[in-house]
Amino acid sequence: HDDAAARRTMEEFAGFPASDGGDGDRTSSFYVDSDGLQRQIDELASFSDSPAPSVTRVLYSEKDVQARRYIKGIMNQLGLSIREDAVGNIFGRWEGSEAGLGAVATGSHVDAIPFSGKYDGVAGVLGALEAISVLKRSGFKPKRSLEVIMFTSEEPTRFGISCLGSRLMAGSEELSQSLKETVDNQNVSFFDAADSAGYKMHPEDLHNVFLKKDNYFAFIELHIEQGPILEKEGIQIGVVTAIAAPASIKVEFEGNGGHAGAVLMPARNDAGLAAAELALAVEKHVLESGSIDTVGTVGILQVHPGAINSIPSKSHVEIDVRDIDEKRRNNVIEKVHQSAIEISKNRGVVLSEFKIINQDPPALSDKSVISTMEFAAKQLNLDYKLMISRAYHDSLFMARISPMGMIFIPCYKGYSHKPEEYASPEDMANGVKVLALTMGRLSLE
Ligand SMILES: NC(=O)N[C@@H](O)C(=O)O
Ligand SMILES: [Mn+2]
Ligand SMILES: [Mn+2]
């Protein structure tokens, strides 16, 4: 990919001759410090509650606080003005010449589910900060301000709520209410956990997290694809056109438990078997949806008391169902609910909870943001592919308050949510350049 084209574009943007220092010239207009970026990715991965190469970084944990401090350190070095809202969404701003105009924002998350990798979310935070460096190095002067956001809790790990920070930014009254009763599996309340991480707040402060609809002119998120398509097809950039609709359900069964030896099979009301049967029912309904785009996962299945010689008296199941077609997904959810009721009847156990935690609509990327990302990839002579995201992202909610777009880069065998997750420095650099060019261009609109 030739930087000359990018340099010409930057000159058009910036309206001044960019230096043409040639190879290795750190000041050349479009230089990505790949080594520096990789160093940051590795350093951030060290803030983990699980051994390398895995990363575990749960919301408001000590490691999360360390990671937040690390990100603010880089924002400081870049001379960005830093703001944090009540729940700890962190904003680093590069003031534009027309600060009154809606800013162009980018960002992602640094929280990581148990035993995952070091690129999910991180690529879109450290990569975004490097994109700002690229623009600053090129001498670019923004008109609209540029803002890098580190969202609080994209992963649903601690409180079962995904995209907690971006949902609130997008004005989720429902969430601001439910957080008042929300506790984690150690019975720690959301507010006590936030307080332990330095985010002391009162429930009514949650409304201050809400952002106005036209707060941002555009929001773009850089992310690893988390699927195998780009790598398989040898394409460098994914231009995301839509994000699939995620839903998550919590189910609890209660039976009467008892002695594994003394209670004969006909006399049992086994909550564990009810959970197992429901897990298979989820798979059945998803496979019968008639579309490959419907996916269903039982990522959490727990039985109580959890003793080999005790019949499970309680079971806890958490189900993740997604599809790019909201109606088709909701049909599956309804069928799963019917199965849960049937199973509880057939097995004489109580369906003590069937709670839909979230049932979000899919999001569409904004056409003009898409064409700007396509323009940027072309300028950089990078092949790109229009594609949908099956994973959800903070972009799903930012789309509610801002024209949204996402940039995907290939990742090794499409691995994600596991330690083997990997994106090459070259692919990271490509993503950073497309993001920088896209933000630069949108900032001048
Ligand atoms: N991008 C990403 O991994 N988001 C997840 O939280 C998900 O489950 O999709
Ligand atoms: Mn993730
Ligand atoms: Mn992510």
Automatic annotation (TrEMBL):
It is found in: Endoplasmic reticulum. Residues 247-339 form the Peptidase M20 dimerisation domain. Keywords: Endoplasmic reticulum, Hydrolase, Manganese, Metal-binding, Purine metabolism, Signal. Its EC number is 3.5.1.116. Its cofactor is Ni(2+); Co(2+); Mn(2+). The keyword Endoplasmic reticulum applies. GO terms for molecular function: hydrolase activity, acting on carbon-nitrogen (but not peptide) bonds, in linear amidines; metal ion binding; ureidoglycolate hydrolase activity. It comes from the Eukaryota. GO terms for biological process: allantoin catabolic process; purine nucleobase metabolic process. Pathway: Nitrogen metabolism; (S)-allantoin degradation; glyoxylate from (S)-ureidoglycolate: step 1/1. CDD domains: M20_bAS. GO terms for cellular component: endoplasmic reticulum. It is an enzyme of class 3 (hydrolase). It catalyses: (S)-ureidoglycolate + H2O + 2 H(+) = glyoxylate + 2 NH4(+) + CO2. Its main location: endoplasmic reticulum. Involved in the catabolism of purine nucleotides. The sequential activity of AAH, UGLYAH and UAH allows a complete purine breakdown without the intermediate generation of urea. Belongs to the peptidase M20 family. Homodimer. This is Ureidoglycolate hydrolase.
